[in-house]
Amino acid sequence: MTTQTSSASEKPVDMIIFGGGGDLSARKLLPALYMAHLHCNLPAETRIIAIGRKDWSRDDFLAFMDQQSKPFVDKKALDPEAWDKFLALFDYVRINIDSADDFRRLAETSRPNALRVFYLATAPDLFTTICDNLTNAGLVDEHSRVVLEKPLGHDLASAQAINASVGAHFKEQQIYRIDHYLGKETVQNLMVLRFGNAIFGPLWQAPYIKSVQITVAETVGVGSRAGFYDQTGALRDMVQNHLLQLLCIVAMEPPVSLDPDAVRDEKLKVLRSLRPMSVADIARDTVRGQYAAGAIGGEPVKGYLEEANVPAESRAETFVALRAHINNWRWANVPFFLRTGKRLQKRQSEIVIDFADLPFSIIPSGPRNYGNRLIIQLQPEESIQLQMLAKEPGSGMHMLPVNLNLDLQQAFTERRAEAYERLLIDVIRGRLTHFMRRDELEAAWAWVEPILNGWKELNDRPRSYTSGTFGPAASSALMARENMAWAEEA
Ligand code: BG6
């Protein structure tokens, strides 16, 4: 069992962010830490040490925060006095990661009695050197924690190599592998929906469930990230982590508790039960797409190949749809349709549970072969809808589909912490449940890697789709083949 190191949480915290002057830090981590500070969720004596390559003074770094990070803080939460108090928590240390001397300077800056949280928001090929140098400078002890930002590898071997090199310095219960989807309120609520409500229990399996759809649709394009994205593609960027984690939460057996390992053991079983795909399966059950020019919300947008720094012949996929199967008793023969893409019609992440058709209808008028549908909207809407049949008012018995609709934003009006804020607080408090374990990460890669290889072997280009649609027509065909349809087409 993984134990929570609660005694360590009384120590003052030094949060040490490698890549402190980078994009992720500016847009996500620093605003999240500000919100945690504003709501008194950081331990009293917290200090934040930003690490970067630039030869900046502390004041230069604070100016960077004002310019690059403050704009990402929710305007309503921006209080000048609180922001100044927040800035007072910071130090900046310039580090050349190959220099042992620079790490010694870090050791002089960090308090000897502090619980050190190292956040590695850098390219993963720097992780080994950083960890080696941290150990050599005496900065790692049994209370230290390390947070690893994705991408955690580009295939199974590289993920194993990262795990091995970080594992040489930190025990597994000191390692927090971030998948920010696990920090989202609505994703955590999925566990409550499934395991806090008895009514779904008996129905949550074959043959009562006919299929499951998981969609994470984005309207944004590749933006300024082409250098990274073109080497990565949607399968690695989104499916290997976020979508498979969602699939795990939908499909896992009830864990014995919410202890980190109890939950992660069950997720691991799901990942290990994913049916491996042969090249023939890949040709039939996966669709790769790449966005072409089109319009989003009435505004014209460029195609992927016209974006800055994208190679002319790029085959990077910006869209994936696929049909997965879980080889176990609960899910035998229930297809899981996964879909994600950039430059799609609208930003929408949702899970759709299609229940089995009515076995027989005694009511002659109304839809035949009707199956109830549970739609769980994760973002931007936060709602749970159950589609069912009701009698249309009037004479005669005529049935029409209607929705039972739980709007979670209306039901709970409290502030929602952003995913990064929640996860950073979890790290500080030593709560590992919403982070990926080593074997989970590797099992996800073990399933995804053959798809990447299969695509190489098939050697075809991703299908072009117009920006502002829901992807290539082949994605609809993937479901239509089985008389099914994506939620927006049903
Ligand atoms: C990141 C991906 O992990 O998730 C990005 O690298 C993607 O490409 C982002 O845009 C989506 O996150 P969210 O929270 O906006 O749904």
TrEMBL record:
EC number, as in UniProt: 1.1.1.49
Enzyme class: oxidoreductase
Domain annotation Glucose-6-phosphate dehydrogenase C-terminal: ranges: 191-486
Keywords linked to the UniProt accession: Carbohydrate metabolism, Glucose metabolism, NADP, Oxidoreductase
Transferase in keyword set: no
Pathway annotation from the record: Carbohydrate degradation; pentose phosphate pathway; D-ribulose 5-phosphate from D-glucose 6-phosphate (oxidative stage): step 1/3
The family this protein is said to belong to: Belongs to the glucose-6-phosphate dehydrogenase family.
Matching HAMAP family: G6PD
Protein name, per record: Glucose-6-phosphate 1-dehydrogenase
Source species: Caballeronia humi
Gene: zwf
